[in-house]
């Protein structure tokens, strides 16, 4: 990353702007000179079942018992009918249809160690939409409306259990 910053500093000296050519695409990019470290934490006691499910290979959504609204990721309170702690936990079947996707080639610094990856949104059989990585070797094989399965995975090198889509053959 320091090479990028050096190039940007040189560009500022020469042109007055931190504009450099992207090595991969050969297109101009603006390099922000401000670092944005970001670490967050949030309480999960009301949705802890979701995280416990991931550890057990299960992925849950919730449905409001008051109005029937469905949510993924799960939340404890319903913004539609304002009911609190009135959610039914439902395990997702994993069956979905890809609605849209994008190939991520310009990554945030914390994901820079990953090769280019695909993120997609799928409509799940249960009626919720899920945003997740799509695990596929050839991006040319990705098509909207293709059938996908949502599965848990341990993402390396971090060792974090999360979920992703895999194509249904």
DSSP helical segment count: 2
Strand order of the largest sheet: 6-7-8-10-9
What CATH first level of the largest domain would be assigned?
Answer: Mainly Beta
Q: Secondary-structure element sequence?
A: HEEHEEEEEEEE
* Reported CATH architecture of the largest domain: Beta Barrel
What does this structure look like?
This protein has 169 residues and is mainly beta. It folds into 3 domains: 35 residues, no CATH class; 50 residues, no CATH class; 76 residues, OB fold (Dihydrolipoamide Acetyltransferase, E2P). The chain has 2 helices and 10 strands; from the N terminus they run αββαββββββββ. The model has no long low-confidence stretch (mean pLDDT 92).
Give short descriptive properties of this protein.
about 170 residues; mainly beta; OB fold (Dihydrolipoamide Acetyltransferase, E2P); 5-stranded mixed barrel; 3-stranded antiparallel beta sheet; 10 strands
């Amino acid at each position: 990353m320091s090479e990028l910053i050096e190039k940007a500093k040189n560009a500022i000296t020469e042109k007055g702007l931190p504009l450099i050519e992207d090595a991969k695409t050969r297109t101009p990019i603006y390099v922000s000179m401000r670092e944005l470290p970001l670490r967050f934490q949030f309480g999960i006691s009301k949705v802890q079942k979701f995280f416990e499910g991931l550890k057990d290979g299960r992925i849950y959504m919730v449905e409001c018992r008051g109005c029937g609204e469905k949510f993924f990721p799960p939340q404890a309170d319903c913004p539609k009918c304002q009911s609190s702690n009135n959610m039914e936990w439902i395990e997702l079947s994993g069956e979905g249809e890809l609605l849209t996707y994008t190939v991520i080639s310009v990554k945030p610094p914390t994901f820079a160690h990953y090769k280019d990856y695909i993120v997609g949104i799928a409509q799940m059989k249960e009626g919720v939409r899920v945003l997740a990585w799509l695990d596929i070797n050839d991006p040319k094989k990705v098509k909207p409306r293709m059938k996908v399965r949502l599965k848990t995975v341990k993402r390396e090198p971090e060792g974090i259990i999360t979920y992703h889509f895999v194509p249904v053959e």
